[in-house]
Amino acid sequence: MKYSIVDIETNGGDKITEISILVFDGEKIIDEFTSLVNPESNIPSFITNLTGITQPMVANAPKFYEVAKKVYEITKDTVFVAHNVNFDYGIIGKEFKSLGSSFKRKKLCTVRLSRKLLPNKKSYSLGNLCASEGIKINDRHRAKGDADATVILFKKLLILDEAQEESVISTFLNPRSRQATLPPLLSKTVFDNLSEKTGVYYFKNEAKDIIYVGKANNIKQRVLSHFYDKKKKEITMCMATADITYTETGSELLALLLESSEIKKHYPKYNRAQRRTAESIGLFCYEDRLGVIHLAWNKLKLAPNPITKFYTVSEARSFVEKLCEKFELCPKYCHLQTNVSGCFHYQLKKCRGVCRQEETIKSYNSRVQQALDSIKYKEDNFIIKQPGLKDDQYGFVLVLNGFYKGFGYLDTKKEASLNEYMNSITSLKDTRDVQRILNSHLKNYPENLMLIEESTL
Question: Which of 188, 207, 252, 422 is most open to solvent, judged by the fewest CB atoms within 10 Å of its CB?
Answer without folding.
Answer: 207
